[in-house]
Design goal:
Layout lengths: L1 H34 L4 H4 L9 H43 L6 H47 L1
Helix pairs in contact: 3-4
């Protein structure tokens, strides 16, 4: 009976010791990361990325280039949607025997609606891309002005 009681107590002590050791190791890793980090980058005034005029110009150039790519992608997608709508309307036209049937007119009307919405959506999305690019450029200009003074 005493052996079982002693074993249970020993097991509890081992568990507490393991938990304590784990917590101490976690604290040591956090401590080591905070105090032994490389602080030479913070002390170097030349390597300040935000205040660098070249970095700001690079960000603005990258934003313009990415906005152009996004606009091209949007235009390509709108063209593909319009082409698919035309193809589907042509398939309906070929499938129906009657010229000017209700189904054929409906397919052509739907194709026109899809093409119109594709143009509208592409225009809205391009405007949003332009707005985002302008916000990024204004933010970079503001940062440049703040560090330039």
């Amino acid at each position: 009976m005493k052996l079982s009681y002693l074993t249970k107590q020993f097991s509890t002590v081992k568990r507490w010791m393991a938990t304590t050791l784990f917590c101490l190791l976690a604290i040591a890793f956090v401590w080591q990361g905070a105090f032994f980090s490389n602080t030479s980058a913070m002390a170097d005034p030349i390597a300040t990325l935000i205040a660098s005029k070249d970095a700001g110009d690079q960000v603005q150039e990258k934003a313009s280039k990415d906005a152009g790519r996004a606009k091209n992608f949007i235009e390509d997608t709108a063209d593909k949607v319009k082409q698919t709508a035309k193809n589907n309307a042509n398939k309906v036209d070929q499938a129906t025997d009657d010229n000017g049937s209700f189904v054929e007119r409906k397919a052509k009307k739907d194709a026109a609606t899809i093409q119109k919405r594709a143009d509208e959506d592409a225009a809205r999305t391009k405007k949003a891309v332009d707005n985002t690019k302008n916000v990024v450029e204004r933010a970079v200009d503001n940062i440049k002005d703040a560090f330039g003074k």
